[in-house]
Amino acid sequence: MAPEKKTGKGNSCPLYKACGGCQLQNLSYSEQLQYKQVKCIRFLSRFGHVDEIIGMALPLHYRNKVQAAFGTARDGSIVSGVYQSKSHRIVCVDDCKLEDETADAIIVMVRRLLPRFKLFPYNEDKGKGFLRHVLVRRGFQTGEVMVVLVTPTNLFPKKDAFLNELLRRHPEITTVIQSINGAKTSLVLGKEERVLFGKGYIEDVLCGCRFRISARSFYQINPVQTEVLYGKAMEFAALTGKETVLDAYCGIGTIGLVAAKNAKRVIGVELNADAVRDAKQNAKLNGADNARFYCADAGKFMTEAAKAGDKVDVVFMDPPRAGSDLPFLKSVASLAPNRIVYISCNPETQARDLAFLCKNGYRVEKMQPVDMFPHTNHVETVCCLYHQKKDFISVPYEPKNADYLKR
Ligand code: SAH
User: Probe ligand 1: pick from 271, 297, 370, 378, max atoms within 8 Å of CB?
Assistant: First the structure.
C-alpha cells in the first residue's frame, strides 16, 4: 500500500470541495478501504462471508479516461474541467490526482491553444462557440492516446492548423476524433463522429489480450485494478476448456475474450452497437474464433436463449449501476448454468439480484470487493454463485415482494 501522506489525508486536493469527485479524500487510503469493506458487508453479508477488499498499490492517476467540459469564466478566460455538482459552473481542473497525467496535460494544452486559433468554448444559452468537451483516453500498456473534441456542429475552423499544433506539442496522440453533439443533453458524446487523425480508436492490453477501444465504448477506467478484478472473476469461473460461457453486458468483450482462452465457446451480448463492433474486432485481434458477440438487450437475448433451451455452463454478468433486470435473471435461472460470476459496481442492486438468484437455485460461494475507484465512494464486487442442482426447486416470481416493480 502507498504511503498515507501521498494518497489521502493531509494532502487533499485544493478542489476537493468544489469538484466533489473524490468523496473520500478526507480519509487515509486504509480508512477508505475500511469504509468500502463495511459498505459491502452491509449489503452482502446476508449471502455469506465477504472477503477483504483488494486495494490498489499506488492509488493515484489511475483514470485512463478523462473528460473536461469547456466554458468561459466571468472574466472572459477559458476554463476546462468538471461541472460543480448541481450547477452549470465549471471548476477548472489542471491536474487531478485520479486522472492520467498525460490526459490532463493534453486538455490544458487544448485550452491554451484555442484563443491562438480564435476558437471559443460553446455557449449553450447563446448557441455560439466551438468546443463543448474534450475527452482523452490513454492505453495504459500501449501508450496510445485518443483525443475527442466535442463540437455542436461539424464545422471546425482552422482545423488543420489547430491539429498540427496540438500534435506537435503532444506527439504521443495517436488519434483525434471530432464528435458532433448539438443536443441540449448531459451526455458528452454525440452520435456522429469524424476521424480527423489516426485510426479512430486506440488499443490496449489487458490480461494478455489486446483490445480495440472506440470513443463511445465502455472500457474499465482503472486498468491496474481491472486485471485484479478479472483475475478473480476467472478464478471464480474455474474454466476447464469445456464450457459454454456467456458474457452478458460484455462491453468491448474484455471478460469474454479473457475467458475464451480457457473455454469451448463464448457468447457475448451488449446493447451498445459501437462496443459490439469493437468486441467482434477484438475477437479477431486475439484469434478467438470460439467467441461470438451480439448486439441486443441482455434480458431479451437471454429470454430467447431460455426459450430455445440453449445450454450455458458459466455466465459472467457485469451490468451497469442499476443492476440486472427481471427478464435476464429469470432466464438465467431457467437456463441454470453451473456457475454465475456477477461483477457489480453497486452492492445495493447486486444484493437485490443475488437475492432473486438465491431464491431460484443458487448459493453464493465467494464475494470479493476490489477497489477500482480509490478516493471515490464507489466499490466493485465480484461474486461467485453455484447452482444447487440437487435441491433445486424454482420459486415463482412474486410481484408483491419485488423491488423491480418500484423502479
Ligand atoms: N463487461 C464490460 C462492460 C461492463 S459495463 C467490461 O468489463 O468492460 C456495462 C455494460 O452494459 C456497458 O457496456 C453497457 O453498454 C451495457 N448495457 C447496459 N444496459 C444493457 C442491456 N440492457 N443489455 C445489454 N448490455 C447493456
Answer: 271
Query: Is any ligand 1 atom within 6 A of the Cβ of residue 287?
Result: no
CA of 254 to the centre of ligand 1 (A): 11
Do the Cβ atoms of 107 and 121 come closer than 8 Å? no
- Domain CATH number, residue 396: 3.40.50.150
Q: Both 342 and 323 in a single domain?
A: yes
| Catalytic residue positions, numbered | 345
150 occurs within a structural domain = yes
* End-to-end CA gap in the chain: 40
Q: What is the dihedral of CA 275, 276, 277, 278, to 10 degrees?
A: 50
Task: Give a yes or no: residue 215 inside a domain.
Answer: no
Query: Can you tell me the distance from the alpha carbon of 140 to that of 350, in angstroms, rounded to the nearest whole number?
Result: 29
Residue whose C-alpha cell reads 461467485 in the numeric block: 384
Contact 215, 148 (CB under 8 A): yes
Please state the pTM of the whole predicted model.
0.89
- In tens digits, the chain (407 residues) has pLDDT values of 333 434 445 457 888 888 888 999 889 999 999 999 999 999 999 999 999 999 999 999 999 999 999 999 999 999 999 998 778 889 999 999 999 999 999 999 999 999 999 999 999 888 899 999 999 999 999 999 999 999 999 999 999 999 999 999 999 999 999 999 999 888 999 999 999 999 999 999 999 999 999 999 999 999 999 999 999 999 999 999 999 999 999 999 999 999 999 999 999 999 999 999 999 999 999 999 999 999 999 999 999 998 888 899 999 999 999 999 999 999 999 999 999 999 999 999 999 999 999 999 999 999 999 999 999 999 999 999 999 975 445 444 343 333 433 33
